[in-house]
Amino acid sequence: MFSYTFKRLLQAILVMVVVAFVSFSLFNFVGDPVNSMTGEDASDQRRDEVREVLGLNDPVYIQFSRFLGNVVQGDFGISYQLKREVSDLVAERMPATLELVFVSALLAIILGVILGVYTGIHRDSFISNIILVISLAGVSLPTFIIGIMLIYFFSVILGVLPSFGRGEVTDLGFWTTGLLTNSGLKALILPSITLSLFQMTYVIRLVRAEMMEILQTDYIKFAKARGIKTNIINYKHALKNGLIPVITITGINIGTLIAFSIITETVFQWPGMGALFINAVYFVDIPIMSAYMIMVAFIFVLINFIVDITYYFIDPRIRLKEEKG
Amino acid sequence: MLFKKINKIYDTDIGYSFFNSKIAIISSTIFLIICLCSVFAGIVAPYNPFDPATVSLMDAFTPPMWSEGGSSSFILGTDQQGRDMFSTMIYGSRISLIVGFSSIIFAMVLGVFLGVTAGYIGGMYEIVVMRLTDVQLTIPSILMALLVYGIARSIISQSMHDEMVMYVLIFAIGISEWPQFARVSRASTLVEKNKEYVSASRIIGLSNILIMFKHILPNILRPILVIATIGLALAIITESTLSFLGVGVPPTTPSLGTLIRFGNNFLFSGEWWITFFPAIFLIVLALSINLLGDWMRDALNPKLKKR
Amino acid sequence: MSFLEVKNLDISYPTRKETIVASKNVEFTLERGEILGIVGESGSGKSTIANAIINLIDPPGEITNGSIKIDNNELRDNEELIQKIRGKKIGFVFQDPQTSLNPLFKIKEQLIETIQTHLNLGYQDALKKSIQLLKEVGIDNAEKRIEDYPHQFSGGMRQRVVIALAISCEPDLIIADEPTTALDVSIQYQILELLKDLTKKRNLGVIIITHDMGVIAETTNKVIVMRDGFIVEQGETKELLTNPKSNEARSLVISVPPTNKKIDRFKLISPDGKEITSDSKNLTKNIIKTWGIRENKNQKLLKLTDVTKIFDDRSLAINISFGSKNESTDKVVKAVDNVSFELFEGETLGLVGESGSGKSTIAKIITGLVRPTNGEIFYNNISLYNSNRKYQIDKSRGQIQMIFQDPYSSLNPRFKVRDIISEPIKFFQKNISHNELTKNVYDLIDIVGMTRQSLDRYPHEFSGGQRQRISIARALATRPLLLICDEPTSALDVSIQAQILNLLKDIQDELHLTMLFISHDLPVIRQMCNRIVVLKNGSVCETKETEELFNNSEHPYTQELIRLMPKIESII
User: Fold this and answer.
1) Taking a contact as any Cβ pair under 8 Å apart, which residues of chain C between 394 and 453 contact chain B?
2) Residue A147 vs residues A133, A152, A273, B58, B290: alpha-carbon distances, Å
3) Engineering a disulfide at C232: which of A192, B127, C248, C389 sits with its beta carbon 3.0 to 4.6 angstroms away?
């Protein structure tokens, strides 16, 4: 167990270091940080001062380790455009994004698994076919179109749900949440549906394919030959095997959800990190871009680390392989 | 002769499955029509929306011909600049398709090359390539594309932006999709590599390049084709999303995403058609490709023989 | 009234082109305490009948006619009754123990679940019974092992668990579909003994489906021979094997390699009862013309000295990226351990051993597919590996060729047969003219007994035996001196095996080839080889002339292998 966890942890750290290096390269090699700080028409002397202050005259590895040190402490520098600490900007906006992503992930996975299992078991039923057609439409509908459609229907025509913003939020000091107020919850409905739909259809299709494959394996046939009841075969034997890949994609899912929240936040004017990031892309605000990239990668790696550990408990094959080693 | 050929195709399992699947026939027909229309946009579209001479601001906001105030010269109405919606959409789909196809081909060539070589050669090289896909997967495609786009903006000088934007898009989307191809082709190569026909080729003494690309590659094309199809839909959607976010193709040569972005501003004031038609067009395009990919995946999967 | 009565059974698989008849007019009976064997070549419909009894035919197959009665209860179209009977009255054993058990559930859970489905027992009683069952099928330390997951058991032990599951609810009938095909000889023997034992002790009716006449001879009381869905002959096992009446049964019996003597060639009978003869002598004339006349000088062609291969399966990724070396010896496998032998021109040397004996790894080392960890390989007195352990393929120039086990993966499915055979010719003769090439390809396809029309087809259009012929043609295309045959017939039916073995003997005689013949099948080895090397866990047990080995082997392992191999002669 320990060596398994240790290995995974090392791998996770390696991935993070690579991402940090890419992000560091962004800072140093893309555009000119001195220009960004001083403006195009600063004097050479002033430029040299800034170079010295920024430590740009040091060897690259020293710069990189300094960068790493700063990142670990949550220091991502100062936004070129907004002239504020990036870490403050991110901290202000992170709760909005994470709440949206969390609710959407729950929706996508729970509904996705239920519908996927159903369509996998009842492969030719009428309801399955309807679910499949809808799921295919879900894959083909770009997120922003879903958002626009939902706004048009529920906000413009019916006028029952807000079309933008987070509603009323409660400040918990370190965190602002919209989950505690009525208007906050209402405001969350459309964006979270928009964000989760694509991933949900993805989960449905994956679970369905997995269930169908498992139901054709020898051990299912052997279970049938032993007279085990169909429901037990479907919901105990097949389901447990079928859920293993779901755990894997849950990890990837959440990273994707964060990325797609950029679009959802744009459509619904949701005050989260995505809106901050897209603005940074317009103005080539490198500190925000690299901070965002590191944040997303970190969340992704963290979740995948948890997923790997979960695997260890669910799949005895991995557990035993590792215990041997 | 042609008839004989069709009969032969029909005789294969894939051909049979195709001709017996209404979904496959309909979706491939729609996709083909859209492709043809965009290739021959100059002939199909009644106006050239990029030619300022044919556009008049006087015609702006004309509704579709069947609604009140519509005009028979603009079947689907006009946009805020007075461009014919139908023509703009045809030209817009052309850009969407060019970007979609080019980026997926770019991703496929890169990914398949790295995947096959990694799977076949193995060792340190394989580890590096696969770690690279791991790292790449931590950054979802749309985010990757945005990052590449942002970086490119700062490298390329301002005046070149509009010219270069198409290549930047193709590169950005392509680079975000290659790990899929690399993973699938590596996995398939690992399977094929252990088959005895590869051993036989090695014993004869054939070179590794020949074994990888003449012997193994044709045998792993099926899964690659499936992800390429699904990837094409994804690339088109990503392109339109980027354009919708305002970081895609410039408004002077709008793609479907750009059209929806502009139309979105008029949705609340009642000019629904400016966003509605491009959106529907985009959905139909993506749906037809996805349906085709879906059928392909089932038809090419030997494990899922239909009952 | 018999215990099991199958009458007039028709099963068909409708496909889009035609309706395949999987069984037609099948009739047989079975009593308690009796073992019935169903034998036939692949596609004869033997498994379909087994599946039909418990109504688990793979779709779209269906029973179209007939009746299946157990204790005079009709099973056909009575899903409710079958549900109750599956696992309770009828136990089933599948071929592959590796895939028959759900990998995510402990043995305990799978046993208790089955028991509680059919018997009215509480958890503790069911657990007790499960442990009892594991003991009965010969699993040591059952109290502890019941907590294990399937993959913690070896193949043979897993098949025992499968049998425990099959008998867990006191069934009256056991159906075993190729129960030992995936297992080694010694384990096969144990499993068959276990089945025989259970039959006697519990007074069971047993149906064993197999393609192996040796298994039939040693275990069954009655036998049914099937072909194309029909029963061509049935009767008492001894009577049928000694005096087969139908052509099909005769063909099956005489194609089986005898275990007690060496014969020159197998007699081959076509379905209409005529003898098949080959005239490879005439066909090889052209080849000999292009190759030039070869003579056997009985010189040493190949020599292995102290060859060792260690597979180090520790996770490379982690070690390289982090340098954390945790020494764990059980991921390090010594597949080949100090193996030395010599091979002389014109002879056939057999490598025999069970799975894991390292016999295939040796073939891969000789052909350069796997690098040895230690030791030297000399071909014509030239070392095949240089000082960096890199294979020097140009030292042998295609003179070492190999024929593989699996005819379905040994030919590139995207190549036409013509391209498969001509590629090696073109590789070694870059300037060959088109006519010359065509002539060469024709000669090769002729000699392996295929029509020239087959050249323009793809591998999937051929049967396993035909594909193996194509493989042989490809191997001959480089004009080899040494042909390595790695289990060339173990995926084939016996009558096809006999044809391929005859073909190999013919071309060896005519073309003066030297052969290294690898097999787990002792009777086949006996028919093919002059000398034999017996391998166990990577090392050589003994090397002897063939007849010497079968008559006076010295090593206890060899003696055990010879004793345990199923013998068709045992009954005659």
Assistant:
1) 394, 397-398, 400-402, 404-406, 409-414, 423-424, 427
2) 20, 9, 18, 32, 20
3) C248
